[in-house]
Amino acid sequence: MSRRSHPSSPDSSPREAKRQKLEYAPLTADDYKNGLMLAPMVRSGALPTRLYALKHGAKLVWGPETVDKAILHTTRVVDPVTGVVAYHGKSKPIFTCHPVERPFLIYQLGSADPALAVQAAKMVQQDVAGFDLNCGCPKPFSTHAGMGAALLSNPDLLCSILTALREAMPPEITVSAKIRLLPSQEETLKLVERIVDTGISCLTVHCRTRNMRMREKATIGRLREIVEFVERMGKGVAVIENGDCLGYEDSKRVRQVTGAHSVMIATAAEANPTCFSPTPLKDLEMTFVPGYIRLGKYLNNHWTSTKFCATQFQGAHDKARRSDLKTLREAIVHAKSYEDIEAHVAPWTGEQEFAEIVEAIEKRGGQRAPPIPLEDVVVAPLDAIQDNGELKDVTTTELMVPSLELANKEATSPPSLLGLEIPPISNSGEAIAVQ
Ligand SMILES: Cc1cc2nc3c(=O)[nH]c(=O)nc-3n(C[C@H](O)[C@H](O)[C@H](O)COP(=O)(O)O)c2cc1C
């Protein structure tokens, strides 16, 4: 198949039109619930990674933070062969996406200006399902301009951006925010209340404060109270936990401790985009990386991006031989273009990989939930959890599953703590009857 590097083309192509067979209902707050989400990741959240995350069970995917001013200076170009939509800056695409991911794609904005945020959102709105405001990036390039985590100490500005986005976007486009914890729980709850009142559909909480480093354990125990607070506000807003989740199995622990509606995964997905599945791929160098590179080439993903992502992948090893792994890794590290790696990943086109992704997404039948849903979990009582997410004293089993003896003693009444009646909650949000 002939490939074109940056073709100019009309805004849609026959192939793009053909793919949009499935009708999706507009995204709502409920779509942010009961799922595992791919976190926004600069560099690592590239288009092929997002597509593989969807193939392997992510419910929604966040694109990498893109600053409002950066997208405003781009030109939108659609590749008539693949349908890839690229927003081209002067020297490279600033943001790339594909119609097949559109119903699941949340575009993350970096902004410190309501008017610019709205302009940027209007520019990409046709290609995404919702917008998320980055209120958590602690890096100087973000905070020096008042963006990212700087917004946490400027709640007026933070909320004015969310309000402006909500007012400017049609109802079928959602608005959400991703924050970090503030040092005190009281301050955090005050901020959360203001943010929820702006009309957002979803709040993601990265359970670290601005000054915490990534090597420090996320304090997920603090989230439970925030989830309950948001639920008591009664607006149906989804709360997503973010921090230290390793994948599908581990998300049970996170949901038990936090009661969050969903869980967002970054580092573990950067290492293995199939971690959203109950059966993530192992031996990635053999089972995943070659296909990833082929897909990258098919989608015209810049080689430096594909190479960067491929060098981050690291899954459990099972059958692969050390020598094979080493050979492929070294070939990737030394390759300066797709052609340099051809011998290791041929046959080449990547069309098959793309077709399999489309097929997997279409299996959802126009719904956003992946075919294998999250299992129901019983949420631990609030005062049984420490800030670090560990459960106090008693064993997890004792806390999670009321024993028959206990259940008999308590008759039908749910556990009562701190004056709150806390029935165990199923994954669908319904209370589970205590047998
Ligand atoms: C490579 C990388 C890039 C990231 N880029 C972003 C970003 O663009 N926007 C954002 O809000 N957070 C970003 N983050 C933070 C993650 O979204 C997430 O909040 C953090 O890594 C904690 O989740 P984890 O414990 O699952 O890694 C990034 C993290 C990583 C590892």
From TrEMBL:
Gene Ontology CC annotations of this record: cytoplasm
Region (Disordered): 1-21
Top-level lineage group: Eukaryota
Location of the DUS-like FMN-binding domain: 38-277
GO molecular function, one term: tRNA dihydrouridine synthase activity
Protein name in UniProt: DUS-like FMN-binding domain-containing protein
Species whose genome carries this gene: Ganoderma sinense ZZ0214-1
